[in-house]
Amino acid sequence: MRIVIDLQGAQSLSRFRGIGRYSLALAQGIIRNRGHHEIILVLSGILRDSVPSIVELFAPILSREQIRVWYAPGPVAEIRQGTELRREAAKRMREAFITSLKPDLIHISSFFEGWGDDAVTTIGPYMSAAGHEIPVSISLYDLIPFLNQADYLDIIPGYKSIYLAKVADLKKVPLLLSISDFSRQEGIEHLHIAPEKIVNISSAADDFFTDQAPSTDPQALFAKFQITKPFVLYTGGADARKNLKRLLLAYASLPIALREQHQLVLAGVIAQEERVKLQDILKANGLNSGEVIFTDYITDKELHTLYFTCKLFIFPSWHEGFGLPALEAMQSGAAVIASNVTSIPEVIGIDEAFFDPFSVESIAQKIAAGLSDEALRTRLIVYGKAKAKEFSWDITGQKAMAAFEKTYAKHQAQLLAQTTKPAPLDISNAALRNHVLNQLISDSPDSVFKKYKPHNEDLLRLSVCISQNFPVDDRKPQFLVDISQLITVDEKTGIQRVVRSLITEFLANPPANWDVKLVYSDRFSLGYRYATEFSKQFSQQPTRAVDDKVDDQADDALIETQPGDVFFGLDLQSENIQIQKQYLNALFMNGTKIYYVVYDLLPLYFPKAFPETVDHLHAQWLREISKYDGIYCISKAVADEFKVWSAKNIPTLSPKFDVNWFHLGADIESSVPTTGMPADAHEVIAKIKARPSFIMIGTIEPRKGYKQALAAFEKIWAKGVDVNLVIIGKHGWLMDEFANDLPKHPEFGRHFFWLNRISDEYLEALYAAGTCLLLASQGEGFGLPLIEAARRHLPIIARDIPVFREVAGEHAYYFQCDVNNAPNSGFNANPAGDFPLHNLAEADHIASSIETWLALYQAGKHPKSDQMPWLTWKESAQSILKSLLK
Amino acid sequence: MLASQKIKQALKWLIWNTLKHALNFVNKHPQLRRSLFNFLRSTGILKMLKKMYFKHFLKKNLPFSQYMIGPTIAIDITEQQMTVRAHAIYADLKSRLATTQHTKAN
Fold first, then answer.
1. Percentage of chain A with pLDDT > 90?
2. Residue in B47, B81, B103 nearest the CB of A558
3. Residues A425-451: pLDDT tens digits?
4. Whole-Å CA distances, B15 to A429, B7, B40
């Protein structure tokens, strides 16, 4: 059975009240006890503020595909003028959306919503189409407004007719889940509902309310609220049925000696006008300020501490649907006394605790007994704790599931018993979309636009929502690959080579049953667009597409997503996410999975190796992407670093956040290589081949260790050792002086070469001409040159850091620098550490390592890279797809 | 106070004051106002200005702001900001309205 729970009771204004907490806890109890049944939560996108917290709350027990959001233009509150058209449209949209989920049963968490907020709850004709009725269940909390119309309905113009219409609808559904036996009896007695249609599933207090220890420091809390004596506690509202007036009168009538030893604490928000009335009662009855304390808003933790520390908890209400505060207090170990009417006795269960709520004298007597009779207090505490154990959300969830099963079975039996079978109903998205359009505008006098005239803005917004609510039927899920940076400019960085290589593979070998789409965004407008023109050109001529900006992007359409699509943030575009976070959050909440590729955390580990604020921007980017489904790091070392960094810096990181890693490919020919050789290429290559040549590859920037390496070679050259140092990399950042001085070096052009911004074709030739790859970098995300060298059987000397060990294993010769000065040993454990850069003391270590390696090389005993395992870009891409789209 | 700060403050004041006067003037001339806003809206400048405004002054660039309907931009939505399917639905709605002749849509 597929059960769809409409959870607007936890989204509307009720979310701040008991109904909201009940709706959430019941849904959790149902999900935990769902057995083989499927549960789908439905949320309203109009009440958007509540969606993220609900998604987060249910993440441990429900996949995001099972939390679905429907959209309609708001506001739609009944109390607001001019919302009729939107409200009527929203009602139809909601019903058709729920129908599209093909539910076997629908449960509505709270039906009496939508007066002062934007909730929409109906049991409309589509759900009850003849022969295709979907059984509907509704939570029945109480009938307090219905039974006390003068106090609750007559005073609000317009509300009464809406409330009574909802009561009439309530009578139509096959199942009501009451929160207490008392509210069940009210339904039977006052609404004349057949007893078998109302099931008492009861309620429970959150496990958070325990009798083990207070949740906050009691002394600090007492100081905050000026509680100086043992106290009687009340919590809840201040409307008439809560009976606070009689409570104050009863408290005032206590013997002065007893009052002097105690205080009365009224915890929670009490509206100003009610408070004034209560304070007038205090004055009129000789109660001094300080005897009665109004706390105003308190947190759940503070409330628990008050429950835990009070001498007596009192609950004088004369009409409740359940009486949750009393149960919370009992569970927290408080002695509870309460009124003896409505649902309260079934919650508390011990006669000694009760008083007549309509008698001031009775209330006063029970308070006096509770405060002065220690034996009574002990009995109330012991009994209360035992009684509280009878209530649990799992028991409530099990009762609800049993009621659903019974109702569904009965419904199925009725369908089977029908002699004439109804014609099949088309509930495809296309049919439902047409149905909604017909409901909005048709020749029928009931169509929404016949009653209320739409404006163009209405049509635009409705179209957007209809399109989102009823996606294309049987569409393949999309694999959306973000190339926002590459489409703007190809900087020919290592990252962009990765992007080019992977999109080549994704497009050439798309995963079965998925549509691969390249997408991009800009910094000026919300939303991502399909990179249609770029994809076309890239597929035909990859090099040209990335070299020449595609000019026809203006025609690219906005992306359209459905639950189950995957967004893959491949390109590093840390600024876009700040602009697009609204959009990405909306995609995420709508069921699109969002993953990002993390290339490194270097700006955080080496803040001084990057221009100012890069570390801040990088941290901000990591924090943003950590709100989604997961990341793919380009090495295990980066994944480990992220885990260490996030543990300290993102305390709110979801335990379900998926930290994956993969390895890059090494076949340059599959990375859309650039071509072209300079005029002096042959001469340079000849010089490099003439003697042992050490090749260093990478942008000239502080972390790469170029200064130390050059200083090491100066020492080697000074000893007369005939070797070359070849630096291949563009002029980067924070190394201007060093880079500008390179061409002036005395060995430049003889033993020392710097090749700036060369093509992949030239790089290939240099790899072939070199003797050894030297990687002196203090930190890398992966170290792509390692495997590119291994592929060409070029031996490797590398700094001993985790990522190089991970990639090269035993197939490289490692050098270690002074542990006091180098970051190697503690790299993973010390994020944001102040690692020394350009430590020229390292030059001796590097020089001696090179000399040792040369001796091994000449003896043929140096580590060989031939056997180092490496992936092709195809394998690299497939490894991502295999785990991401599983 | 540093001279640069004084200049910055003076510039800010000048910009805001000019803007205030300009808006006051425009508000007093409805025809001009309509034309100006239509131009700003059609070119996307209005949305950009609003976005800058919300981002920098009202901190409105928060997840699930009231300016989004799900993954779609709702603030001053135009046809250009709609997906292909949304656009088709919009065209369908307009055409139905035209045939049933119950429209105020423009």
1. 69
2. B81
3. 788 999 999 989 988 998 778 889 988
4. 52, 12, 19
pLDDT confidence of residue A706: 95
Q: How far is CA A309 from CA A177, A223, A290, A459, in A?
A: 34, 14, 18, 58
Token readout for A456 is 């163009």
Q: Residue length, chain B? A: 106
Least confident of A25-39, A111-125, A200-214, A504-518: A111-125
Average pLDDT over residues A829-847: 66
CA A68 to chain CA mean position, Å? 14
Closest Cβ–Cβ partner in B65, B72, B96 for A464: B72
Say how far apart CA A152 and CA A139 lie, in whole Å. 20
- Nearest CA to A854 among A728, A742, A712, A703? A712
B98 near A CB under 8 A: no
- The average pLDDT across A266-289 equals 90
| End-to-end CA gap in chain B | 55
Q: Based on the number of CB atoms within 10 Å of its own CB, is A624 exposed (0-12), middle (13-18) or buried (19 or more)?
A: middle
CB distance A48–B64 less than 8 Å? yes
Closest residue in B to A581 (Cα) is B63
**d(Cα A27, Cα A130) in Å, to the nearest integer?**
29
How far CA A98 is from CA of A22, A45, A141, A180, A718, in Å, comes to 22, 13, 23, 28, 80
CB pairs under 8 A between A and B: 141
Instruction: List helix spans (H) across A352-442.
Output: 360-372, 374-388, 393-417, 429-440
Residue type (1 letter), A460: L
ipTM of the complex: 0.81
Q: What type of residue is A146?
A: F
Bridge partner residues of B68 (DSSP): B73
Percent of chain A whose predicted confidence (pLDDT) is above 70 = 94
**Contacts with B89 from chain A: Cβ below 8 Å:** 433, 437, 463, 466-467
pTM score: 0.80
- Name the band, by pLDDT with cuts 50, 70 and 90, for residue A128: low
Looking at residue A633, what DSSP letter applies? E
Q: In what order do the strands lie in the sheet with A752-755?
A: A752-755, A724-728, A693-697, A772-775, A796-799, A813-815
Tell me if A619 sits within 8 A of A831, measured CB to CB.
no
The overall average pLDDT reported for chain B is: 73
Among B62, B83, B100, the residue to mutate for chain A (most A Cβ within 10 A) = B83
Q: In what order do the strands lie in the sheet with A105-108?
A: A67-70, A38-44, A2-6, A105-108, A136-140, A175-178, A198-200
CB contact under 8 A, A433 and B89: yes
Residues A654-703: tens digit of each pLDDT:
888 999 999 999 876 666 667 888 899 999 999 999 999 999 999 899 99
Does the beta-carbon distance from A455 to B87 stay under 8 Å?
A: no
Give me the residue from A45, A443, A453 closest to B69, CB to CB.
Answer: A45
Cβ contact A582–B63 (<8 Å) = yes
Cβ separation A443–B100 shorter than 8 A: yes
Task: Tell me whether B105 touches chain A (CB under 8 Å).
Answer: yes
A731-775 confidence digits (pLDDT tens): 888 898 999 999 999 999 999 999 988 888 899 899 999 999 999
Q: How far apart are CA A753 and CA A785, in angstroms?
A: 18
Chain-centre distance of CA A873, in angstroms? 32
pLDDT of residue A877: 96
Paired strand residues for A41: A5, A67
Contacts of A48 in chain B (CB under 8 A): 64, 66, 68
pLDDT tens, position by position, A348-369: 999 999 999 999 999 999 999 9
Please state the rounded mean pLDDT for residues B85-91. Answer: 93
